[in-house]
Amino acid sequence: MSFLSAALDRVKPSATIAVTDKARVLKAAGRNVIGLGAGEPDFDTPANIKLAAIHAIEAGKTKYTAVDGIPELKDAIIAKFRRENGLSYKPSQVIVGTGGKQVLYNALMATINPGDEVIIPAPYWVSYPEMVALAGGEPVAIVCTAEHGFKLQPDDLEKAITPKTKWIILNSPSNPTGAAYSRAELKAITDVLVRHPQVWVMTDDMYEHLVYDDFEFTTPAQIEPKLYDRTLTVNGVSKAYCMTGWRIGYAGGPAELIKAMSTIQSQSTSNPSSISQWASVEALNGSQEFIPANNKVFKERRDLVVAMLNQANGIHCPRPQGAFYVYPSCAGTIGKTARSGKTIANDEDFVTELLESEGVAVVQGSAFGLGPAFRISYATKTSDLEDACKRIQRFCGDLR
């Protein structure tokens, strides 16, 4: 009998973390490796936010806090939801967690019973189905093709809903594709959900501020007030505020659900870092001027990467509307042979050969539920992106 829990049989390690770790090992061994696997802005945390953390330390704000967040941060989150999303929450309807991932996980652990189904549009963030499985539920993937912009279609959602469906997880802009739902597209989805009152909505808005080309962000509870009482709106400071390591996520939702999530959190991690919470107060309440400045750079990088990848043999790269990822198809390379003599049978072979021969680390699309493709994070310096794309062009050009 194994000492380890049988629950581990239901989950796989994170593919994005795995490729980042592999690139790190190769770099340590002296290889010239460009890592494009991690979804992390290369910009530093803004100075005013860092200063707020320093002031918190100097003021001795380093003790335990309320499990679900300090009142000042809850107030800042409530103001943010009202100001940017037109959503009204009370403090009892808001929770702060150690990153968005913990908030999502707490919600699933607090609500999923064995056999409950959770609909997840694919391509999806690698952690969604694994968290559902750990909670004892059944992830139900709906494939969203490039032809539909990697976006869930209302008819496909209608067909996937069963009496066992408890949640749907929506992520816009999306990790891994960068796809973002317009107001009209989101309204078509919410119209379906209104007809199925047993289905709750978990919306991951972590990339809300990272949108381009005059795209207007909206969130489901904002689009359809009838869903307000069964929607958990999740967000955080990681991406737009360049605070990935600070580990602060948050959510607004029904008070009963928030209370249950707080109970889970109280017996796992307790409160998030007090210092990170005070920094996040400044992030949400302070100047937002750096966000459009950063987005200008991200947009330039997106356009560079899309243009260069579409010049590579066998690669087709759609232009995303948000986040900092592209999700190119590598279908045109399948069946070809690399310089090593290895035949590219699938997207995992593609990314493995690309890393070993050219030192470019990307993540295979099959890890996100739809291949043959791969994900590139363009949240890294422009010179590295240009170099990496030239290496990808060379790698694809050498395939026979």
Distance between the termini: 48 Å
Principal-axes geometry comes out as globular
How many β-strands, per DSSP? 12
The Cα radius of gyration reads 21 Å
Order of helices and strands: HEHHEHEHEHEHEHEEHHHEHEEEH
Question: How many separate helices?
Answer: 13
Helix/strand/pairing category: alpha/beta
Question: How helix-rich are the residues, as a percent range?
Answer: 25-40%
Percentage of residues in strands: 5-15%
Unreliable residue stretches = none
Give average pLDDT, whole number: 96
Question: What kind of sheet is the major sheet?
Answer: 7 strands, mixed
Widest beta sheet: strand line-up: 2-8-7-6-5-3-4
Describe this structure in words.
Helix 5 links the parallel strand 3 and strand 4 (138-143). It is globular, with a radius of gyration of 21 Å. The protein has 400 residues and is α/β, with parallel strands linked by helices. It has helices at residues 15-28, 47-58, 71-85, 100-111, 127-134, 154-160, 183-194, 220-223, 255-266, 274-285, 290-309, 347-358, 382-398, and strands spanning 34-35, 94-97, 117-122, 138-143, 165-171, 200-204, 231-236, 249-252, 325-326, 360-361, 363-364, 374-377. It has a seven-stranded mixed β-sheet, with helices on both faces. The protein is 39% helix and 12% strand.
